[in-house]
Amino acid sequence: MELETSVEFLKGIGPKTAVILKKAGIKTVRDFFYNLPKSYDNFMSPSKIKDIEPGKVVIKGHVTAMVNRRARFRRLNITEAVIRDDTSAVRAVWFNQAYRAKQFADNKEYLFTGVFELKNGRYQLTSPSAVLASEVEMGGGFEPVYVAHGKLKTHDFKRLMNNSRAVFNDIPDLLPTVKPGTRKEALFNIHFPKTEKDIESAREYLSYEELFELILAAKLNKQETKKLTAAAIPFDAAKIKAFTEKLPFALTNAQRLAAWEIFQDMSKTSPMNRLLQGDVGSGKTVVAALAAYAAAQSGKQSALLAPTAILATQHFESLKKLFEPFGLKIALLTGATKGKNALKTAILNGEIDLVIGTHALLTDDTEFKNLSLVIIDEQHRFGVEQRQKLLLKSPKNTAPHLLSMTATPIPRSLQLTVFGDLDVSILNELPKGRIPIETKIITEVQQKELLYPKITETAGKKQQIYWICKAIDDDTTSEVTSVKSRTEKLKKLFPNLTIEFLHGRMKPAEKDEIMGRFADGKIDILVSTTVVEVGVDVKNATLMIIEDAENYGLAQLHQLRGRVGRGSEKSSCFLLTSGDNEPSRRLKELEKSTDGFYLAEVDLKMRGPGEIYGSLQHGVLDLRIANLGDTRLIKRAQDDAVLFLQNPENMLKYKELMSGISHYQQLTTLN
Predict the structure, then answer these.
(1) pTM of the entire structure?
(2) pLDDT reported for residue 611
(3) Rg of the chain over CA atoms, in angstroms?
(4) Residue 174: is its pLDDT beyond 60?
């Protein structure tokens, strides 16, 4: 069976199941086999109940009591059971899994795996998986755990995978640098391991395969970029010095170095392809302004693309103040801009030096006379086609210089792999006068004592507050507080304050209107989802509260915290946790450090294979298994990719490989 065959031709997968799989991105036989287990339950050595400690546990026992009940204050169905072995007993709890009440036979033993934790003053096993002990013992003891998709749970994927055992023999090799049969052996062992060594060796190959593809894509992108021609923008030291001397602040050493690297790139006839990464508040916009100023002095136009109208407006207002003394003409182009036709004519005639805008810059009727520099703010918010649309607006037969900016610090190993096709400038200093944000972890029971007085104090100073929630609406399957229910609670607690909510399902104009009123100081507390993670600076916002903080990644928590501390007043961030468990290492690291680069490296080490920066820069990187902290494997893949490219015939010989990396080429290039 060919790997490109539709998934519905696999045994046991009918039309209905195929629809569910395809919605999850599993469209072909290849997709199916590369839908890897997220983890494994090792049932070979279950613990005695009397010996278990808080954390993930595996136990063997039988169910001696079972009850279903409805939660009083939430739309939850709670199933409780008592699991007993020959040493002791433990309470197990499932939420909205009423079928569990009929799952267990009185006279049979089951293997359970789940988290043993303290909840509401009592220890319990929370939502454990359960399988018949006799079935597991026949299979060898290792059970893969798959991510559920729709109605398809982990046991469904195990059944379907088992039906397809014979098809593994048809899997061809992918890479030229491994012995024949390595790929099919690795894929079989990752789904049907008998020992831990099977899992380790399978992960080793599949990680290498993924890194090889990623690095090869980046190197091919770099080759293609070198073939392009750009208009050189000469560096005029005297004019740049005059510009920097009139700035209302002194540049940091990091800003000076980044600007110099950019000037060097733009002076060449090959297009700059540079990523400017800097922690929250490190001054990326000023560095971009220096680049645009240099372009204008050379008679060239620049465009700055921002993800939202309000952010574009903020850039326009701040850059206008910097550029006006030098006679530069700057314009704002958004969906709400009046007199668009006249402005677009001025842009086409070269009368505008710098255009700042949103998606309005991408329309076909927005044309430039000599666009030579494109600056993209938070460029991961734009798709590949959107970015390319702007890049194609430069004069014929030339490509513009490209400067992309991100406020998410990137670990060194990511720079070598995901972003191997571009140059990176780093702003690792904060401007003088910035006051570090105080971060504190608190539990639900401490809200009344610690949090509510802080809200009253902050509002009393006429300062503003962000309150972040994970969900938009209440969910019967989750205990997470929603934006809407939190807003109602806060309105009752603080009736004299103006409290509104914001979330991603709102229309863009509505979001901009609410964010605009918050920026103008007309809203005291803004309850929001992570839609505010990257956005407008509100210098008067000094308190950030992140509810259910344990449900966020470290990088995202750091970005959210960076929404406060933008002004001269001391700011605070409260990480609100649920339950009685010890705070995670992730939250403790955030509590002790405000250094985004340190936190990025910690995040890389903590997240594990397949989860690193899934949406960092280019939409969906979607690494299945590769650990970008594995410098040894990265070095091996880099060396092998160089050898691969030395023989052009490889491009034709390994067709599946070249077809596969086109996905990475789109995701990991800036042009």
Answers:
(1) 0.71
(2) 37
(3) 28
(4) yes
Give the tokens for residue 350: 């070269």
Exposure string for 590-616, b = 16+ CB within 10 A, e = fewer: beeebbbbebbbbbbebbebbbbbeeb
Q: What is the layout of strands, in order, in the sheet containing 423-427?
A: 330-333, 354-357, 301-305, 371-377, 401-406, 273-278, 423-427
Considering the domain delimited by 237-267+282-406, tell me its CATH architecture: 3-Layer(aba) Sandwich (3.40)
Residue ranges, comma separated, of all CATH 3.40.50.300 domains in the chain are 237-267+282-406, 438-593
Query: Rounded to whole angstroms, how far apart are CA atoms 48 and 616?
Result: 42
CA separation for the pair 421, 230 (Å, rounded):
17
* Dist CA 32 CA 17 (whole Å): 12
Please identify, in words, the CATH class of the domain defined by 1-38+146-171.
mainly alpha
pLDDT at 194: 86
Asked whether residue 239 carries a pLDDT value surpassing 50, the answer given is yes
CATH fourth-level superfamily of 438-593 = P-loop containing nucleotide triphosphate hydrolases (3.40.50.300)
Who wins on pLDDT, 610 or 485? 485
Instruction: Look up residue 611 and give its DSSP letter.
Output: -
Residue type, 49: I
Stretch 593-613: mean pLDDT: 66
What confidence category does residue 277 fall into, taking pLDDT thresholds of 50, 70 and 90? confident
What phi and psi, each to the nearest 5 degrees, are found at residue 351?
-85, -10
What are the backbone dihedrals phi and psi of residue 166, each rounded to the nearest 5 degrees, phi first?
Answer: -65, -25
Ranges for all domains in the chain classified under CATH 1.10.150: 1-38+146-171
CATH 2.40.50.140 assigned to 44-145: yes
